[in-house]
Amino acid sequence: MRQVPVTTAWIINAFENSSQHSEYYIDLQTGDVRFFSPLDFPEHEEIMKKLDRQPERFVRLPKLEKEFSLQVKKDYIETLENQDLKSQLESELETDARYRRILMDYEDERRQWYKFQNEKYADYLKQWFMEKGIELVEK
Prior knowledge:
The protein is of the alpha+beta class. The chain has six helices and five strands, in the order E-H-E-E-H-E-H-H-H-H-E. The two termini are 17 Å apart.
C-alpha cells in the first residue's frame, strides 16, 4: 500500500467544493491539492491532460455525489434530539444554503454538524483511495 502524506482538511474541502466546472488533483509525492477550472481557464485543459497521463504521480479527486451528501445530512439528523431542529433540517435537505442557515441558530449542533460531515467525507475519501492502493497519512 502506497502511503501519501496529506492535509486531510484540504482534501475534504476540495471534495466538498467539487463541481462540474472544477477539478481537483492530489499530488501523490507531496500530498498537495491542485485546483483546475477549464471553463474559466482554457489553459487548464492541457495541464489536466498532462496530469492524467501521470497516474503514478497525480490522482483526480472524485466528485461529491448529491446522493451521498443527502445521506450524510440524513444520518446527522438522526443523531439529533431537538425535534424542532430535526424537522427544520429535514425540510431543507435539498438546499445546502438553507440547511446551513438553519444551523446558524444552533451553535452546538452547527459545530457537531461540520465535525460529523468532515468525518463522513474523510472516511469516504480514505476508502476511495484505499481501493486505488493508496493510504492517506496526515502530515
